[in-house]
Amino acid sequence: MTTARTVLVSGGNRGIGYAIAERFIADGHRVAVTARSGKGPVGSLTVTADVTDGESLDSAIAQVEAELGPIEVVVANAGITKDMLLLRMTDDDFETVIDTNLTGSFRLVKRAIKSMMKQRYGRVIFISSVVGLYGSPGQINYSASKSALVGFARSLTRELGGRGITANVVAPGFIETDMTASLPEEQQAEYKRNIPAGRFAQPSEVAAAVSWLASDDAAYISGAVIPVDGGLGMGH
């Protein structure tokens, strides 16, 4: 029997974040999602917030805790890309991606973790990417932001591991989303040739790994990077 927890997923209105929220609802948890626009899945509480705006997160977290109780699980999922080769990438292209993907995760986790420290229980899960450690041309900003989450999780583990709080990273590979579906077929085939599993993942497969890390079964796992990439980034 799973203990019902209060879960907050950033960027839970589409893609992987939406699938993660759906899975937590199916597991019987109380689920809230942050979104700049749109809504999370049926059964979730959607709060309007932008991870680049600390004040919006303050009010969002206050609302979640007033309606669902103290946050026990936080999933830092909100992220953006601005792909460009280094010599053409502007300072703004780099800084905007870092501000959302990395600093946004800091803003979210710093605020959500206060309840966990009081309760001496918590699960922090960062959604990174295979390219965080594997690298990808044209994604220096995105790759840097995603690899930084590993250092964040490991430092957090060393700070708060003794208080019943774990911090882990899930690193998805190519996921079956609207974005990958819109790629030319030859490009999709080329990507699949490099993936030992020979296919893209379903968002639900990423959500399953997140669900497990949030469970009581994963209480002794912290500072880990769990790849969900069909073998693409092995050894990275």
TrEMBL record:
> Pfam families from the entry?
adh_short_C2
Q: Write down the SUPFAM superfamilies for this protein, in alphabetical order.
A: NAD(P)-binding Rossmann-fold domains
Q: Which NCBIfam families match?
A: PRK12826.1-2
Please identify the protein, giving its name as recorded.
Answer: Unannotated protein
Membership in a protein family? Belongs to the short-chain dehydrogenases/reductases (SDR) family.
Keywords, ordered alphabetically: Oxidoreductase
What InterPro entries does the entry give?
Answer: KR_dom, NAD(P)-bd_dom_sf, SDR, SDR_fam
Q: Which positions fall inside the Ketoreductase domain?
A: 5-178
Tell me where the transmembrane regions lie: none
Q: Which PANTHER family match?
A: 3-OXOACYL-(ACYL-CARRIER-PROTEIN) REDUCTASE (PTHR42879), 3-OXOACYL-[ACYL-CARRIER-PROTEIN] REDUCTASE FABG (PTHR42879:SF2)
Which Gene3D superfamilies does the entry mention? NAD(P)-binding Rossmann-like Domain (3.40.50.720)
Among the GO molecular function terms of this UniProt record, one is: oxidoreductase activity
